[in-house]
Design goal:
The chain is α/β, with parallel strands linked by helices. It folds into five domains: about 5-145 and about 260-290, MutS, DNA mismatch repair protein, Chain A, domain 3 (Orthogonal Bundle), CATH 1.10.1420; about 155-240; about 295-515, 3-Layer(aba) Sandwich (Rossmann fold); about 550-655; about 670-715, SH3 type barrels (Roll), CATH 2.30.30. About 55% of the residues lie in helices and about 15% in strands. It is built from 20 helices and 19 strands. It has helices spanning about 5-10, 15-20, 25-35, 40-60, 75-80, 90-110, 115-125, 130-140, 150-180, 230-260, 265-290, 310-320, 345-360, 395-410, 430-445, 455-465, 495-505, 510-515, 520-600, 605-670, and strands spanning about 185-195, 195-200, 210-215, 220-225, 295, 300-305, 325-330, 335-340, 375, 380-385, 415-420, 450-455, 470-475, 485-490, 675-680, 685-690, 695-700, 705-710, 710-715. The strands form five sheets. Strands 10-11-12-8-13-14 form a six-stranded mixed β-sheet, with helices on both faces. The chain has a five-stranded antiparallel β-sheet with strand order 18-17-16-15-19, with no helix packed on it. Strand 17 and strand 18 form a beta hairpin. It is extended, with a radius of gyration of 45 Å.
Length: about 725
């Protein structure tokens, strides 16, 4: 079972794959990513989507995955299996990197396995072979050289090499000084030939210096001689270097043989890192297109909400253009949708969006839709999009389409999703339309799911008559005749043929003559559809306008209420301040009268008596005020008590009901650790970490929360 190559080409699936390949780090990851194809097994698709979704979460959180870049060790694994083979030092460096990275990932995923449940599954059966790293480190240093103490023999050889090199330096220095003192040497004194130091002897003195002549200058005035004492030590050094090389080969062969039992582990490690590289690439692509994992259903349903065409979204983002999302639903009630409307209205893009997102989903690639979108897995996805005329095969568009329809008829069943653009075109409208209607009836009888685009009126009528088929149209602005790229379900669309022609400058007289050439019924039918579309657009605009007015009214009402409350509060404060000021003025006047009488009479007893009388009068008023306030407060408390008692009775009754509901729910739902859950009324999905006394701890990756079990529901 496989998706046809033509379907992948029609829906530009290869461009999506190219984007994922470009996000891979390793050559092996790029190679494997190129072979990504849609799956048909529900569990495999679900697992693959979960892997990408979990990695995407890591990109958006602090728990970033460790580095996973590696170089392929496929050739090294093959070479290890050959008897007496020997890997080079560079190969051991690559093997060590693969082992170190895998062990690092295993440790990381053990620590954060509650966050990355599905990715952890990839490492669960991997064995940790640290001895590979230990053995390689015992032989090769961090700079990529064989260590002196790799073996005792190598240690002795290198010790002798260093000693011999020291003797060569000493003997050459001695010969240099002697010859220089005797005046045998040229001004440059010495040179280097074949990586060996030689004396630059004047040609006339060449017989006076013992040693091997290694060459001469271009003019012949200088001969290059390696002194006899140095020559003997150089020959010894060459023997030692040969011994060193042979010992290194032996060490590398032994190290290669050591890896033979670990071939399966190395294969598994490389396979894991390749897998992680592809998962990482999918997550990075998902981040670029703002993709998520939708709800995956076992039921036959495709409910896309705010779905974007990913390639169009990326392209428009670069150009800083708006991309219009689409919302569409296919289920057992409405299996087939017939989309109509004028050309350049977005019908083909809608078709490609549905098809490409379905291919991506079944390939384990996250898709740019609203999180409440729901999708299923189809066994067949077949398409007929674009002009398929073939000069090589001498096929017209219609001939090709008939061959395609024949293949559709063989494959279509209840697990098929078909997508056909400009259904029935390429032949006589009457005859082609009739044949297209029969094909559509067959797809309908076989309970296939699909979306077609058409201009044929008979197909629009058929969609209106059959209960599990529905019309839809790409909305057009009736004034500007510009597309809005908005798909409206439940109503057929007009092609706006004459309106678009008129807008493009075709004389009205010619348009009128064209109208007379066709049946009046067809003109009326298309005109009626166009009129209905215009009315619907006007209705939508009126609805939006009313909603906006309602929102404005609500905001204005809230603002006025707030202002009114503030004014009331200020008035009360001003009144209290005024009353207080009046009281103070009255008291001041009385005190002034008392002080004036005292000034005239100078009688202290009368003064004290009058002041005390005034104070008593003021205190009696305060008592009355406090008493009335206390009475009001007491009445309020009584009322509050009564209200509280009523509320408490209601709460007690609700608690009893909740207890009963909890018991019922507890019986109905058996939660398990690791279940995907969400709080009722919420759309955020988390993982159930633990259950303690009817309380659940839910993990949302970036945070955890504690809530009642009764408030949770399991997400399939």
């Amino acid at each position: 079972m496989a998706i046809l190559k033509k379907t992948l080409e029609d829906l530009e699936f290869d461009i999506v794959i190219d984007n994922i390949v470009s996000n891979c780090n390793s050559s092996l990851g790029k190679k494997e990513a190129k072979s990504i194809k849609p799956e048909f097994d529900f569990d495999k698709v679900n697992f693959s989507l979960d892997l990408a979704s979990e990695y995407l979460t890591s990109l958006e959180s602090d728990n970033n995955f460790p580095n996973h870049f590696f170089e392929s060790i496929s050739s090294e694994i093959k070479l290890i299996q050959i008897l007496n083979s020997q890997l080079e030092i560079e190969s051991f460096r690559k093997i060590k990197t693969v082992v170190e990275l895998t062990i690092l990932h295993i440790k990381f995923l053990k620590k954060f396995k509650s966050y990355y449940v599905n990715i952890y599954e990839l490492t669960k059966n991997l064995s940790v072979s640290k001895e590979i790293i230990t053995e390689i480190d015992s032989v090769i240093d961090k700079y990529g050289f064989i260590k002196d103490n790799a073996t005792n023999t190598l240690f002795d050889i290198r010790k002798n090499i260093n000693s011999t090199k020291s003797k060569i330096r000493q003997s050459f220095s001695s010969s240099l000084n002697t010859c220089n003192n005797n005046g045998y040497l040229d001004e440059i004194k010495e040179s280097l030939i074949d990586n060996r130091r030689v004396l630059a002897v004047k040609a006339m003195y060449r017989r006076k210096v013992k040693g091997q002549m290694m060459g001469s200058s271009k003019t012949g005035s200088i001969v290059y001689i390696e002194p006899q004492e140095t020559l003997e030590q150089s020959r010894k050094l060459q023997d030692l270097l040969y011994d060193e090389n042979q010992e290194i080969k032996k060490i590398l062969k032994d190290l290669t043989s050591f890896l033979i039992p670990y071939i399966n582990d190395l294969t598994d490690y490389q396979s894991y890192l390749t897998n992680i590289d592809i998962i990482s690439a999918k997550a990075k692509f998902a981040r670029d297109i703002k993709a998520i994992k939708p709800i995956l259903s076992n039921d036959r349903i495709t409910r896309l909400k705010n779905a974007f065409h990913p390639l169009l979204y990326l392209s428009n983002n670069k150009l800083k253009l708006k991309t219009y999302p689409q919302t569409i639903k296919l289920d057992s009630d409405k299996r087939i949708i017939v989309v109509s409307g004028p050309n350049a209205g977005g019908k083909s893009i809608t078709l490609k969006t549905i098809g490409l997102l379905q291919l991506m989903l079944q390939s384990g690639i996250l898709i740019p839709v609203h999180h409440s979108s729901e999708m299923c897995v189809f066994k067949n996805i077949i398409t007929d999009i674009g002009d398929n005329q073939s000069i090589e095969n001498q096929l017209s568009t219609y001939s090709y389409r008939l061959k395609n329809m024949n293949r559709f008829l063989r494959k279509c069943n209840s697990e098929t999703l078909f997508l056909i653009d400009e259904f029935g075109t390429g032949s006589d409208p009457e005859l082609g339309g009739a044949l297209a209607e029969i094909f559509l009836e067959v797809f309908y009888e076989r309970k296939s799911f699909g979306v077609i685009t058409t201009h044929y009126s008979n197909l629009k009528l058929l969609a209106n008559e059959l209960p599990h088929m529905s019309n839809a149209n790409m909305q057009f602005d009736n004034k500007t005749l510009e597309p809005t790229y908005n798909l409206v379900l439940g109503q057929a669309g007009s092609s706006f043929t004459f309106e678009v022609a008129q807008k493009n400058g075709i004389p009205y007289s010619l348009i009128n003559r064209a109208k007379k050439k066709i049946e009046k019924g067809k003109v009326r039918f298309d005109a009626t559809i166009a009129k209905l579309q215009k009315q619907r657009i006007e209705l939508d605009k009126t609805t939006d306008s009313l909603k906006q007015e309602e929102d404005k009214f609500k905001k204005e009402n809230e603002r006025l209420n707030t202002t009114n409350e503030k004014i009331k509060s200020k008035l009360i404060n001003y009144q209290e301040l005024f009353d207080s000021n009046q009281r103070m003025i009255t008291i001041g006047n009385k005190l002034n009268d008392i002080s004036e009488r005292y000034f005239n009479s100078n009688k202290k007893r009368v003064l004290v008596s009058e002041v005390l009388s005034l104070v008593d009068s003021l205190n009696s008023k305060r008592k009355k005020t406090n008493f009335s306030k206390a009475k009001i407060k007491k009445n309020k408390v009584k009322k509050t008590k009564k209200v509280l008692e009523k509320e408490l009775n209601i709460i007690r009754k609700e608690k009893k009901k909740n207890k009963l509901n909890f018991k019922e729910k507890k019986i109905k739902i058996n939660f398990e650790i690791g279940d995907k859950v969400r709080i009722e009324g919420s759309t955020t999905i988390g993982t159930l970490d633990s259950i303690e006394k009817n309380k659940a701890i839910v993990n949302y990756n970036s945070f955890t929360t504690k809530t009642d079990l009764t408030k949770l529901e399991i997400v399939k």
